[in-house]
């Protein structure tokens, strides 16, 4: 016996969830392909956790249709769905041993005790906790508890494995390791996983695709690369990676790139598919370089004053004042930093700029 | 849904077609003609005896059978189950109330539909099972339509709890309301209701102007206010001594808090009589030393006030301990760093923070005093209060249930009013100053004057209480207290004698019968109480559904209904079809279950709030249903709460008197009712012996349980104010 995958796809068709007058999820549609890890990303209160809980069957959709593996499960309670979840608090049963926790789902679905125990042992070995079966959850560290929770969800061979902010209770170092472990396990077993987080870096690191949610609706769906390089709107541009948002004007396009005027400068960006006219430029902090020199030699840059300069070892962070407003810059050049109060020239590298609607 | 619906449907058919529909007890006249067929089920009775109104019950059962059996109708199943369940339940209820023992229950029904040849008796096993089956078919249909997250168990549990509360709390209270307007010929008139409610002996104020006694309402309210003030002050003094002084014997004060749980409410009265009665120790000493003539001054307001203060001070103490402990010491330290003296700190910080808690303690004692029955019954003399007046209106020479009902309405309104004030007004006013964050402050010492005052009130009172309990335990061993103080085992032998006869051991003592019944009733009602209470707590904490707030209020309401009102209402409601229970052991058990349920709910809610909700959700996503989740996850984690609520419902069933004194019968006599009967006969020796036996028994039970479960866990629980302040009286 071994732990296999029964990965299935998930589809939401016009799903809404309302509580009285407030709408937590508003007419949301998306498709998650089998074997993918998809992240629901957004600020708190955007409806991502509610969406996840509707996949689990812990919340019922007020309207719309939810399909798992092509089957309509909209009215099916959590018990009857083949979906498991790793909870933010881990939710390990404190009165059961680690092995009993992992075997719980198997035992309640009628698997013979011996088979359940064998499979639980296997699950624990899979997450690197072989030999910890007879301990109580309270005797484990936070990271170990997290692994038990993952093993418990895995041994049922779910169609979909859900993660609700699984790393938020861990410290920064452990978080990075667990993140990589989860991704590795998911890819090894070919699981369909849905992962909720509000940490955009975590989302970029683990996902095949990301669904960005804001104010109960989907703001954008795409691969991490698409979302970072070609955000569709101001919210996504700002939320993923952070960006300086500056007014510009789209003046022309040719073959997949568009030309945008910013003051005297013209920059080329990936074609946003917007009509010519006013647009908003999203400039990544690392797409700006600082050059000391007099303002009159400004051919390809804009004159700025350095308001604040912070030394962070691997890079410099600058706060700049310019005619287009304040700018935030991350510059890898730590050998010859520009001091605060100096005037300088800001130039733009070709990559890391996108145009979105105003 | 299919298997469970099918099981309930099958049980519905069993109840309808096989089991006897009517209760065949001796309290109702023989139903003519005697039911033929195997068991006198509704089906047989309806077909052969001419009770045609039972036959429509088959209709929803057939309908439900059709949708369950025919796969073609699957899509319609939930809606049809809901409709047929609702119709079946409604039909059973309506026909049950419309047709009584001698045909139509009300004259206008007869006028409308013509006379009936036959009447019918109270519901029996068949009717109960069929009604239950309809209830669950209805809730299954409800869940099938997608309500309650499609959870059949939750829907069924809510339905069950609501139906039970409707039948055993609201129906009886409704009977009290209609009973108060009874014209004597079975009709209802607002004029009769008004006349009874406004009777002069209830409301008159003649004691202010002339030397007559005032109306019974004023007596009750005056007594309750006085008791409230006295117990609150004493409770505050105890709490200050226990929390804010270096008093050594704090554990001894904690013992005080256990006393009201294990003591039948009237026992304090007996002890007070031993001290201050005509042959009391103090009375005799006074007449020996100072020549004061022995009088009956203790019988009346002074005696009742004294005993109620003694009985309720521990409850007030518990509430006040919570309040005093809840004041963050760092607040007082802050005041002192701002150059306030100890006294100014107490006056400007400590006392204002305690004030809402003080008001709360007052209201709780106020309600307890209004509802108290045992003490005024024994010590009241000519001083009448509402609860005793209700009792005498039913059992005395008057035998006027209408009058008892009217008095019950007034008492109910007073208690519910105080209860409402306590919940609504104080609920929003309390300051919780100790938050989740650590408070490193050290509670400041009391100002000198207050400290002395607290010691001077609390310690003598505590000593007095312990002396009284000592007297109770000792008094049973004297021949005749005050007159002949020689030691004897006579009373204990009379109560608990054992002898060997030809058939083996003979329980020849007089108390055995009632003691065994009491233990039997308590043992049967305790698990039921715990089950209903914890189920309700689960619904309140774990499930969100529309009307949850109202649901919670309804379940807690039965706490505020005084025992005497419950007693009178059960007599009025369950003495006739369709639910005929008086004189059975069932009515005693049901009475205890619904009297003690709020305590069990509170214990369950408190414990369940500690268990993170994600544990249940996790269990659900792992494929366990609601029932399995409860059994494997929630119940094991709730074990201390379960034990606590089992113990308290058991102990309270043994010590309570006010409601059950109306419901006991010669066959099912309870210990407390028996003791009160002995007191009324003047047989103090036996009463005291029996009471001390009960107290010792209760102490042993509690000690054993504490030993078994672990002193700390249950001990802490015993000390939570919420659990105890809702002790029904």
UniProtKB/TrEMBL annotation, chain A:
Highest taxon of the lineage: Bacteria
InterPro entries: AAA+_ATPase (IPR003593), ABC_SmlMolc_Importer (IPR050093), ABC_transporter-like_ATP-bd (IPR003439), ABC_transporter-like_CS (IPR017871), Mo/tungstate-bd_C_term_dom (IPR008995), P-loop_NTPase (IPR027417), Transp-assoc_OB_typ2 (IPR013611)
GO molecular function: ATP binding
Pfam entry (one): TOBE_2
PROSITE patterns from the UniProt entry: ABC_TRANSPORTER_1 (PS00211), ABC_TRANSPORTER_2 (PS50893)
Domain named ABC transporter: residues: 10-240
Keyword ATP-binding included in the entry's annotation: yes
Keywords in alphabetical order: ATP-binding, Nucleotide-binding, Transport
PANTHER family: SPERMIDINE/PUTRESCINE IMPORT ATP-BINDING PROTEIN POTA (PTHR42781), SPERMIDINE_PUTRESCINE IMPORT ATP-BINDING PROTEIN POTA (PTHR42781:SF4)
Protein name as annotated: ABC transporter ATP-binding protein
Organism: Azospirillum endophyticum
Lineage: Bacteria, Pseudomonadati, Pseudomonadota, Alphaproteobacteria, Rhodospirillales
UniProtKB/TrEMBL annotation, chain B:
Transmembrane parts of this sequence: 53-73, 80-101, 121-143, 155-177, 221-243, 255-277, 297-324, 404-421, 452-477, 521-541, 553-572, 641-664, 684-709
Membrane topology qualifier: Multi-pass membrane protein
Keywords assigned: Cell membrane, Membrane, Transmembrane, Transmembrane helix, Transport
SUPFAM superfamilies: MetI-like
Subcellular location: Cell membrane
Positions of the ABC transmembrane type-1 domain: 217-422, 515-705
Keyword Membrane listed: yes
Family of the protein in this entry: Belongs to the binding-protein-dependent transport system permease family.
Listed name of the protein: Iron ABC transporter permease
């Amino acid at each position: 016996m071994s732990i296999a995958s029964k990965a299935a796809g998930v589809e939401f068709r016009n799903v809404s969830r309302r509580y009285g007058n407030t709408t937590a999820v508003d007419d949301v549609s998306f498709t998650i392909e089998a074997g993918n890890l998809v992240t629901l990303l957004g600020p708190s209160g955007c409806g991502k956790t509610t969406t996840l809980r509707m996949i689990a069957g812990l919340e019922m959709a007020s309207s719309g249709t939810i399909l798992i593996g092509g089957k309509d499960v909209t009215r099916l309670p959590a018990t009857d769905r083949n979906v498991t979840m790793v909870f933010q608090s881990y939710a390990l049963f404190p009165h059961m041993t680690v092995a009993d926790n992992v075997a719980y789902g198997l035992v309640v679905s009628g698997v013979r005790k011996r088979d359940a125990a064998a499979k639980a042992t296997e699950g624990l070995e899979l997450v690197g906790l072989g030999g910890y079966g007879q301990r109580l959850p309270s005797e484990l560290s936070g990271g170990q508890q997290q692994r038990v929770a993952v093993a418990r969800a895995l041994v049922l061979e779910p169609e979909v494995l859900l993660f609700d902010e699984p790393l938020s209770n861990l410290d920064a170092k452990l978080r990075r390791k667990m993140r990589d472990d989860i991704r590795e396990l998911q890819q090894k077993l070919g699981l369909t996983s849905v992962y909720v987080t509000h940490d955009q870096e975590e989302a970029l690191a683990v996902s095949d695709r990301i669904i960005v949610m804001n104010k109960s609706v989907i703001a954008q769906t795409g691969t991490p690369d698409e979302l970072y390089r070609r955000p569709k709107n101001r919210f996504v541009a700002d939320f993923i990676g952070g960006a300086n948002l500056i007014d510009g004007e789209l003046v022309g396009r040719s073959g997949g790139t568009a030309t945008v005027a910013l003051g005297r400068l013209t920059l080329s960006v990936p074609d946003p598919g917007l009509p010519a006219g006013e647009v908003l430029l999203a400039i990544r902090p690392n797409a700006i370089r600082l050059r000391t020199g007099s303002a009159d030699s400004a051919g390809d840059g804009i004159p700025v004053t350095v308001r604040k300069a912070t030394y962070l070892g691997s890079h410099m962070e600058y706060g700049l004042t310019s005619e287009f407003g304040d700018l935030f810059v991350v510059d890898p050049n730590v050998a010859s930093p520009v001091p605060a109060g100096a005037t300088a020239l800001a130039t733009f590298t070709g990559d890391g700029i996108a145009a979105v609607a105003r | 849904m299919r298997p469970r619906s099918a099981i309930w449907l099958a049980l519905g058919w069993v109840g309808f077609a096989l089991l006897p529909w009517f209760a065949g007890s001796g309290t109702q006249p023989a139903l003519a003609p005697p039911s033929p067929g195997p068991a006198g089920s509704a089906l047989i009775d309806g077909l052969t005896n001419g009770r045609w109104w039972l036959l429509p019950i088959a209709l929803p059962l057939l309908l439900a059978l059709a949708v369950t059996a025919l796969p073609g109708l699957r899509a319609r199943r939930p809606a049809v189950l809901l409709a047929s369940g609702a119709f079946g339940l409604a039909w059973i209820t309506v026909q049950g109330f419309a047709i009584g023992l001698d045909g139509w229950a009300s004259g206008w029904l007869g006028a409308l539909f013509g006379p009936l040849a036959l009447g019918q008796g109270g519901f029996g096993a068949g009717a109960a099972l069929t009604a239950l089956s309809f209830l669950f078919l209805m809730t299954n249909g409800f869940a099938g339509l997608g309500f309650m997250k499609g959870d059949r168990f939750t829907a069924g549990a809510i339905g069950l709890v609501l139906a039970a509360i409707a039948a055993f709390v609201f129906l009886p209270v409704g009977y009290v309301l209609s009973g108060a307007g009874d014209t004597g010929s079975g009709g209802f008139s607002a004029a009769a209701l008004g006349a009874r409610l406004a009777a002069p002996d209830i409301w008159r104020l003649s004691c202010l102007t002339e030397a007559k006694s005032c109306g019974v309402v004023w007596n009750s309210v005056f007594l309750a206010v006085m008791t409230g003030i006295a117990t609150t002050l004493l409770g505050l003094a105890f709490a200050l001594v226990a929390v804010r002084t270096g008093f050594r014997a704090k554990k001894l004060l904690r013992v005080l808090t256990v006393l009201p749980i294990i003591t039948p409410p009237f026992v304090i009265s007996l002890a007070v009589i031993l001290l201050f009665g005509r042959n009391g120790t103090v009375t005799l000493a006074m007449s020996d030393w100072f020549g004061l003539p022995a009088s009956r001054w203790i019988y009346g307001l002074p005696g009742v006030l004294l005993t109620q203060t003694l009985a309720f001070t521990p409850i007030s103490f518990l509430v006040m301990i919570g309040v005093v402990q809840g004041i963050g010491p760092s607040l007082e330290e802050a005041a002192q760093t701002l150059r306030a003296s100890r006294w100014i700190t107490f006056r400007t910080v400590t006392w204002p923070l305690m004030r809402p808690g003080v008001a709360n303690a007052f209201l709780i004692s106020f309600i307890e005093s209004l509802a108290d029955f045992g003490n005024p019954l024994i010590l009241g003399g000519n001083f009448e209060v509402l609860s005793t007046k209700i009792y005498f209106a039913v059992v005395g020479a008057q035998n006027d249930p209408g009058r008892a009902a009217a008095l019950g309405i007034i008492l109910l309104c007073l208690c519910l009013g105080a209860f409402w004030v306590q919940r609504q007004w104080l609920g929003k006013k309390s300051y919780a100053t100790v938050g989740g964050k650590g408070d490193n402050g050290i509670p400041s010492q009391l100002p000198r004057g207050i400290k002395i005052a607290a010691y001077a009130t609390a310690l003598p009172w505590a000593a007095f209480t312990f002396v009284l309990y000592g007297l109770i335990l000792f008094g049973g061993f004297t021949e005749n207290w005050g007159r002949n103080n020689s030691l004897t085992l006579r009373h204990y032998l009379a109560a608990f004698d054992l002898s060997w006869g030809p058939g083996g051991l003979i329980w020849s003592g007089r108390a055995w019968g009632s003691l065994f019944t009491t233990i039997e009733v308590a043992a049967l009602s305790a698990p039921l109480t715990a089950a209903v209470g914890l189920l309700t707590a689960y619904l309140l904490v774990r499930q969100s559904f529309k009307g949850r707030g109202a649901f919670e209020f309804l379940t807690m309401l039965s706490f505020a209904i005084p025992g005497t009102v419950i007693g009178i209402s059960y007599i009025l409601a369950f003495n006739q079809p369709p639910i005929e229970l008086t004189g059975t052991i069932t009515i005693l058990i049901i009475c205890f279950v619904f009297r003690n349920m709020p305590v069990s709910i509170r214990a369950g809610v408190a414990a369940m709030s500690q268990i993170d909700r994600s544990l249940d959700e996790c269990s659900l996503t792992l494929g366990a249903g609601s029932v399995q989740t409860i059994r494997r996850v929630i119940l094991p984690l709730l074990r201390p709460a379960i034990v606590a609520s089992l113990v308290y419902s058991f102990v309270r069933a043994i010590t309570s008197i006010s409601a059950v004194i109306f419901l006991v019968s010669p066959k099912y006599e309870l210990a407390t009712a028996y003791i009160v009967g002995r007191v009324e006969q003047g047989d103090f020796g036996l009463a005291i012996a029996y009471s001390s036996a009960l107290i010792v028994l209760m102490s042993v039970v509690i000690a054993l349980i504490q030993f078994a479960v672990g002193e700390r866990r249950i001990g802490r629980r015993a000390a939570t104010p919420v659990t105890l302040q809702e002790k029904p009286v």
